[in-house]
Amino acid sequence: MELRVAHLYPEVMNLYGDRGNAIAIRARCARRGIRCEVLPVNIGDPFDPMEADLVLIGGGQDREQRRVAPDLLERGPALREAVEGGLPVLAVCGGFQLFGHRYIDHDGGVIPGIGVFDAETRHPGPVADRCIGDIVVETPFGEVAGFENHGGRTYLAPGQAPFGRVRLGFGNNAEDGTEGAIRGNAVGTYLHGSLLPKNPALADALILAALRRRYGPGAELPALDDAAEERAHAAAVRAAERRARRPARQA
Predict the structure, then answer these.
(1) Contacts by residues 69-77 (CB-CB < 8 Å, ≥ 24 positions apart)
(2) Fewest CB atoms within 10 Å of the CB: 5, 74, 113, 149?
(3) Could you read off the pLDDT tens digit of each residue along the chain, which spans 251 residues?
């Protein structure tokens, strides 16, 4: 078996080691004998989402988001169609914001998104504190740990499912306890770290979704010895328990 992973704007959208997500996917595939080709997609490069098995996009500062937004907008209709057809996506931080409807920056400027997620991000202003620190989230894929650093606050529309609920940290907006968003096999999240090396269940869920989309629902993943990954995950959780924000209990 083989997989084709499209890594969008890897030279521009790569805050806090987000490139490690692509490395983790390729490594976990290699350990199972699955050939995995990671294809960088930069501004202006030809790209058909229907030909990809998995799409990754990392985080970037406002100027990087403005730089890639026009190119991403042109790809938006095809990406939305592919997600509706089951394409797995991992969109992190600035990538998550651009996969929503829009990001309104601290000056009121609008960076348009492609609307994969029914969400909007707003920056509360230049003097507002950033949402920064270790984070632990309860998700459909189990407990996920990472690191967040974002000024924008993301608000999900009614009916848009979050990626998970914040146990420790800030999450989408430090108000409602949500973190990220999920639609079909597409996941948006603020978690850096990089995320996938220390959250192998999520990495495998993305790989399995990609395999089943390409090869059919009977595709399976052999189990791996994840002792090292589990130690990394436990260390990230312990760090969050020592120093992360503890959100107010949500009703």
Answers:
(1) 69/98, 69/111, 69/112, 69/113, 71/9, 71/43, 71/44, 72/8, 72/9, 72/98, 72/113, 72/114, 73/112, 73/114, 75/47, 75/49, 75/114, 76/113, 76/114, 76/115
(2) 74
(3) 999 999 999 999 998 889 999 999 999 999 999 999 999 999 999 999 999 999 999 999 889 999 999 999 999 999 999 999 999 999 999 999 999 999 999 889 999 999 999 999 999 988 889 999 999 999 999 999 999 999 999 999 999 999 999 999 999 999 999 999 999 999 999 999 899 999 999 999 999 999 999 999 999 999 999 999 999 999 999 999 999 999 865 43
Query: Residues annotated as binding site for substrate?
Result: 130
213 part of a folded domain: yes
For position 177, which CATH number holds? 3.40.50.880
What positions carry a catalytic annotation? 93, 192
- Give the separation between CA 183 and CA 80, rounded to whole angstroms: 10
For residue 166, give its domain range. 2-243
Binding-site residue numbers are 130
50 within some domain? yes
